[in-house]
Specification:
Distance between the termini: 47 Å
Strand content: under 5%
CATH topology: Four Helix Bundle (Hemerythrin (Met), subunit A)
Radius of gyration: 20 Å
Number of strands: 0
Helix content: over 70%
Shape: globular
Number of domains: 1
Length: 127
Amino acid sequence: MKIKQTALITGLFMLVSLLSFGQKKAWKELDDYHSVMAQTFHPAEEGNLKPVMARSGELVAKAVALQKAAIPTDYQKEGVKQSIDLLAKESAALDKLVQQKKPEADIKKAITALHDRFHEVMEKCEH
């Protein structure tokens, strides 16, 4: 009985180790930005700019929080900080377009470019 119990505990430990191996520590500020980006960009892709119009300021706030946050060790890769700085700058530029009530085509172009910049940040975090 004791051998089975030891084998079971060992097996569970190995399973947990395998599942956690290679997983990066969460980066709250990056996840927070991603959440707002997803909720604004995907509707914009379909022509619904209401979410981005309503939440452009929130994108700026999340980008600034990301910019100020300490970069977790797993994400300290070449170019990450520079891309985050650009993300914050471009988030502010998008918000400015929204506040100035610029044409929807300009706002859609800006949110698309910002989405691409966000993916650049993610890509640099992975490499």
